[in-house]
Amino acid sequence: MPFFNHSMAQSMRKSSNDPSFSKSKSKRIQIRSMPGTTDPNQTVARSADPSISLKYTQKISQRKLLFTRSLLRSQIEQLSAQEGALSVRQVPKLFEAFQIDTNNKLNEDSDVQMFPAKNTSMPEYVMMACIYVTQNVDPKNSFYLKVLRHLGRKHPYIVNTWEIFSDDVNVYIFQEFVPRGNLISYVEENPVNERQLCFWARQIYRALDFLGDSGIAHRNIKPNHLLLKPMGNELCIKLTGFKNSIIYWNIEENDVNFCQCLPINQQKSDGPNFQAPEVYGNNNEFFDPIIADLWSFGANLFFTLTQFYPYNIDYPHDNLDEEIWHNVTKIPNISTECQNFLYALMRSNANDRIPFDFIDKDDWFRKSYMIPS
């Protein structure tokens, strides 16, 4: 069954044949100025490079757009209607089936503690319990919990969520345990070659494509949200970290839910957070979360090969594209096709970036089986 993808969302936004698009006209005008600079005194509004626009042009029938829009609407309505955490009082036996080993803490962050866990009815599955206090996570209305429940165990490259509970004090999220840690710790000890990179790139792409089908933009793709798990003879990527996720499509306005830019002077203090350049701008500017996620995707692939950020945030080059391309071409032992793919994802002008559904048509992406080990 076909699902609405990111490029279709863009096509529908530009369509003038459907009267329902008139509602979002004023917002579309506001978004035309895309931040493309780190200079706080300058706003850059740049159209796409004509040659790039031509390269990424595709024709999609209005009938298909309307059909896929209805599928997307259904997904978003289901997501919005999801309940968050189940009350322990209402389902005590279901909660009791999950056992938490509180004597062996796996990890602790500012707002969450993680412990080994298991379900007595399914002991073969290795799980963990993420425990939040209810003051930090609303058990009923948290969009984060709704996303986790909606995604559940539906996709092999997204960390599975088994169940979510709450009592008067805590929220308990039971998820699969991913034993090999995150991408940061892995690449510190293990150099990654081009073939492995392409293998993981395809998995991340499929995870993001599934999110797009569900109306979700991730908004926080970074190496510590990419976990590694053995599957057969391969080490596979699992995407997690959905606290900043949003619904990217407004079903009432039939347009992308644009996000307001963060203050441009905040970028240096935020540091290398794998956010696209246009995320930072002036207070009257917005960015497209779908296209921003593509830049994050490319930046994570770049980091996997180099353990560096694609550009110098503290002292960026006047021409950010030039700096990024220079850094891409310095990566040793990768093909020209790989260089071009990374650069296509990380173009500083969001309008020049490769659209989502052109990724799996890219030569490097499609020919991963031909890349030497």
Automatic annotation (TrEMBL):
GO molecular function list: ATP binding; protein kinase activity
Stretches assigned to the Protein kinase domain: 100-365
Polar residues: compositionally biased ranges: 35-45
PROSITE patterns: PROTEIN_KINASE_DOM
Cellular component aspect of the GO annotation: nucleus
Superkingdom in the source lineage: Eukaryota
Keyword Kinase: yes
Chain residue ranges for the region called Disordered: 1-45
Keywords, ordered alphabetically: Kinase, Transferase
InterPro entries recorded: Kinase-like_dom_sf, Prot_kinase_dom
UniProt xrefs under PANTHER family: SERINE/THREONINE-PROTEIN KINASE PLK (PTHR24345)
Name by which UniProt lists this protein: CBL-interacting serine/threonine-protein kinase 20
Organism: Dermatophagoides farinae
Origin organism lineage: Eukaryota, Metazoa, Ecdysozoa, Arthropoda, Chelicerata
Encoding gene per record: CIPK20_2
